[in-house]
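Progress report, Aim 2. The chain analyzed during this reporting quarter is listed below.
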Amino acid sequence: MSSGKTLRSLAPLVQRRAFSSSRRRHAASGATASEAALRMLDTFAGGVSIRRQILDANQVQKLALTLGRTTLGDTDISTQAPRAGTPIPPGYHLVYFTPGGLESELGTDGTDRTFNAPRPFTRRMWAGGRMSWPDATASGHATLRVGDEVEERTRLVSATPKKSRGGGEMVLVEVEKELCAPRGYSVIDRRSWIFRPEMDPAHASEGASSLTGEVPRAATTIQDVASDDASGFPVRQLRWSPVGLFRFSALTFNGHKIHFNEEWSQRVEGHPGLVVHGPLNLINILDYWRDVHGAGLEPASIGYRAMSPIYAGEAYSIKTERVGDEEGQRTHHIVAEKNGTVCMRAEIAT
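Predicted structure tokens for the chain:
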């Protein structure tokens, strides 16, 4: 990628600098939520991580097949990879710029620790975030395409101590990623993670509730049905299998055990089954919007919040809650819900 106007326009307000090993050692000790947040800010202050990658056809093909989609553009990807120049759908960039490092560098729960809060706040959950596609909106077409060489710039935005509804301490961490393709800004991706105190596998629960035997173990299903309300928009019904979750974990190089290790998820983390990835549901919502409302365009932005977990084998749905004009933009309010409980809420503006 050239170092001309495109890269200069991406120059951050802070200077890039290496994260010192001494600061990493300082951040590794135990701390309260307030201390952990301050140590994160000290460790990553002014730091920008820069990576470059060619967006290969294999990754986006395998993601689309995992999502049950056999075409990208005008290509039948069930038999061949998409051609160079094929637009990459909104949200599909999540299978690129995946974590690196050795397995020994991962957290006890299998998560990447690049932007983790210091111990004991090591249990990470994807809480929500916001994505925007500034140049795609201006030009009316996708700015990420198969074969592009893209630069990713990642920085810590904030680290804030919080209290859970039960009074427990946790740390809210916000990270921003900017992706720049040959045609300019492609995606600005701000992610929010919640870090709770770590769990000790030695004290795993013997009596954790389990969904085993209560939910089907068949292949993933995704289908649209007619809405039973006055909106007229279809409802998308989904049920993710353990195999589908494993494939998504592999594509995103995500070692978080709650998505593929049922014993860990139940006995250590206290979940009744394998957890459907927050980013996977984000992509599902974007795909639904693209199919029902998108008319071949990309959104201007999406804000989303994970509110309740969904587990492998559970049936849930994605639907349009309402559509309106807000601040000069057409906004679609879309939810993923399970048995009347909203599990993820999103607002997509065009």
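The first helix runs from residue 5 to 9. Helices lie at 5-9, 21-27, 33-44, 57-66, 134-139, 242-251, 262-268, 278-294. These observations will guide the mutagenesis work planned for the next reporting period.
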